[in-house]
Structures are given as structure tokens and as C-alpha cells.
Amino acid sequence: MFGPEGPTLRELAVQALSSVERGYDLLAPKFDHTPFRTPDHVLDAVAEALAPLGPFTDGLDLCCGTGAGMRPLARLCRHSVTGVDFSAGMLDVARRRVPPAEAPRVAWVRGDARALPFTAAFDLVVSFGAFGHFLPGELPRLFAGVRAALRPGGRFAFPVFAPPRPTSPAFWLLSGFDTVMRVRNALWRPPFVMYYRALRLGALLGELERAGFTVELRALPGFGRRADGSPRGRLVVARNDGPPGPAVTPRRAG
């Protein structure tokens, strides 16, 4: 469907009728050949925007998928980088893409992002394109876990982009996708949570502040500006200003 190396329409249908975890296990070998994989120019723009805030020591890629975000994260962090995802298939692909020279400082953890097994372990947590897999009511638990995983002064960062306008075909494509997914989840179990328009920027910022973060928005200049002058791309940077917790070393997992 997305070219000769991408998944077929039949494969996508099977994945969509599975649970989120099983669906991504099935998609993993071909995930990098779909539009769902965060493009390199987005990853590089985030790394460039974060570089002046460093240096960082240990970093975590939340919902790392096949590990595309680990490359820029490794440039930003001097000691270790960890990827966490609940899909074993995604992590298998991610492990294979790590250069041998980088392997000693890379760790992989299979786990639920809403129940992170870390306390004060990282200076930097990043995430790329994962929030469509969380319902609004799950954000408090998600952000509380991220804050607990950060050391005092650590940052949680992720890119956000201006939504398409109602006059754009992309607006109706994304709205139609969300509608299909809601109908699917009303008729089929287990649910497959993947919505493009379920979470608004204001709601994300509000939940981050309620979780105890100090939040700022930084423009990503490489993506231009809208007609009203606002940036098309922004980086959300949430700083943990809470009291210190017991420091731990990110654990390695097979």
C-alpha cells in the first residue's frame, strides 16, 4: 500500500483488527516504510532545538517503536540512551538497527508507558508521534510517570504541529480516519486506540502543568509559519522542577 516494501492493504486490515500491541508486532518489519514513522527531518529539527538546553547525560525515548528517535537522542546524551515500548516486534527491529559501537550504551525496555519502571533516571525524555495511542483520561498517569522518571531539572520534550485547516483535504482525511477507528472500536474488541485528532495542544499543556511540569513552547523554524504568523511546528519542553528522588541506573532488558 505504501510502496513495494510497505505493508499491503490486507496486512493493514489484519493489524487494525488486532490489539494495539499485536498490531504493532505485526507491522514492525515494515513500519519504517509507512507514513507512521517519524521523518528524519522532524527528528533532526527536535535534536537541533534541544541541543542548546544540554548537555544531557541519560535519555529515554518514550514509545520508541523501531528506534528512529534513538539516533538524535544518542547525539544529545553523553552516557546512555534507553528506548521503551510495549511492542516486542518493534523492539526487535530497533535492536538490529543499533551500530555495534553504540550498543554498550543503549538499553531497551519492553513496558507500558503508563507504568514506567524508572525513578529519577533521566535528564531528558523525548517522544515522537505517540500521543494518539492514549485516551485523554490516561494523560495524568502518563505524565506523572514521565515526571517520576526525570531527575530534578530534567526535561520532557516532544514536537507538535499545527492541525490542518477544515478547507484542507488532510483535515477530512484525518477526521475520517478517527471516525473509522471509533466505529471499529465500538464494534470490535480488543480496541485499537489510534486517533489523530483526539488530543488538543491546550489539553496536553494543561495536563503537563497539573502533573507538576513547567512548560514552554519553542518554535521549530524549519517548518515555516501559517498565514496568521504562528509556527507550523513547535517543540513542547516540560521541565521537572520537583524535589529530587532516589537516582537509579536505567536497567537493561532483553
Automatic annotation (TrEMBL):
SUPFAM superfamilies: S-adenosyl-L-methionine-dependent methyltransferases (SSF53335)
Gene3D superfamilies according to UniProt: Vaccinia Virus protein VP39 (3.40.50.150)
GO biological process: methylation
CDD domains recorded: AdoMet_MTases
Domain of life per record: Bacteria
Keyword tRNA-binding attached: no
Gene Ontology molecular functions: methyltransferase activity
Region (Disordered): 231-254
Swiss-Prot/TrEMBL keywords: Methyltransferase, S-adenosyl-L-methionine, Transferase
Domain Methyltransferase positions: 60-154
InterPro entries: Methyltransf_25 (IPR041698), SAM-dependent_MTases_sf (IPR029063)
UniProt keyword annotation of Phosphoprotein present: no
Protein name: Methyltransferase
Source organism (scientific name): Streptomyces rubradiris (Streptomyces achromogenes subsp. rubradiris)
